[in-house]
Amino acid sequence: MSILQRLRSMLTPDTDRGVKFECSACGETFESDHATCPNCGSDNVVERESFEMRPE
Q: Where does the record place the Putative zinc-ribbon domain (predicted)?
């Protein structure tokens, strides 16, 4: 393993953030996309976080 690869593995987290979705009406968050919010029925569900890929 090169020095650069060791440094990357030390500085990057072992887990990656996933995609998170949030209802703009009620603030409920979800792990998967929904056409309508199961909590309040609003059709305004938007992506709030996305993948943060680890460099290879």
A: 20-43
Triad 51, 43, 22: Cα angle to 5°:
35
Give the SS3 label for residue 18.
Answer: coil
CB 42 within 8 A of CB 21: no
Can you give the pTM of this predicted structure? 0.55
Residue type, 24: S
DSSP three-state, residue 9 = helix
Cα distance between residue 23 and residue 29, in whole Å = 6
Q: Contact at 8 Å (CB) between 48 and 21?
A: yes
1-49 confidence digits (pLDDT tens): 588 777 767 666 555 556 788 999 999 988 888 899 999 999 999 988 7
